[in-house]
Amino acid sequence: MLKLEPDDVIAVDDTKIEHPYGHKIPFLCWLFDSSEKINVYCMNLVTTLAVKANGLEFPLLWRIWRKTDKVEQKKSKIELVKQMLLHIRQQVGDIPLWVAMDRWFLCKNLFKWLESINFNWVTKAKSNTALFQLTWYDANGKPRFRPVNPRQLLMQVAHRFIGKKNERVSIAIPDIFIKMPEQKVGKRGRVVTKYKYVPIAAIAVTRLPEDVEQRATLQSSDASIAAYHGTHLIISNRHDAPEAALEAYVKRWRIEVFYRAAKQELGLTSCLAQNEYSHMAHIEMLFVAETLVRVAMWELHLLNEEDKGDDIIFTHGQVLKGIFTASCRIVSVTQQGIESIQVYFDTTGTLFSRFIRKKWPTFMSLVPWVINHIFEATA
User: Fold this and answer.
1) What single DSSP character describes residue 237?
2) Exposed end of the chain (fewer CB within 10 Å): N or C?
């Protein structure tokens, strides 16, 4: 069920977890929160989230970005993303996967690295993203390009969005290229960086999930976003499949929904421990809980499809309360000389009987919690 399959999407993003009273925790620092427009004393968590084609979504790996002067600990968020994606690639093999990112991760070196290990990338263009449009071929058959910015491309197709502001409309703009760096050996034997025109997909789209969210919460848009009259420009390396690229980017919003649920319902910001390992264990257990909640919601979805009756729709909070805070009674029983432990759930647990029956372990054992082994693999 949780196995990644071809063309599944891995959403990448980071969030700030405010801890105003933990000044002795080594990975906390002052950072600017772009959503609140203030500086906060916080932890910067970088996360990957899997969104499968069948609708199931669950968190994968996480890293903590550290603001430090120590060379051995100083890594950029892009380097942390590379670590996580490389670990995922080693686990799933060479199947093609999508990586959906916001515009902060728009980095050409990252794009080339992703393509080298069979990842397709998609992101939203910045207002200053340098793009090039194929205009004509000269007498020698050599292509000629003119530089354009995302706003100019959006203006070219703006007339096709007239009267369609209340629905999601996407238009693929052909013959768009980007300059990608390429290492070559020069005449004197030295490695030099050359730039090569590479075709990309450029999709003008309106009413993305983040646009609807901003209108609902009355948030002001960022000036660095490439937008024109409510339309945005999505770019991807899959110039041959713009529709698939747009579908993958739309799924990126699920990681924002995950962060909201983690902070409001799972207690991501509620850990008051004063040591590093406790915070790491808190995050790890939160990821496990979120995975269980998402699998339970998926089981309910399958149950609705099988019954073909009235849909039983539960919110994230209702499923969380039903699974983790359902009251239960544990009784030790001896029958015919055989001792057993019986667990009785209340009526709330019956809603998730299908999930419990499939995922309940056949046997349980208590083993030591090996902290170093777990954190080396996940944090």
Assistant:
1) S
2) N
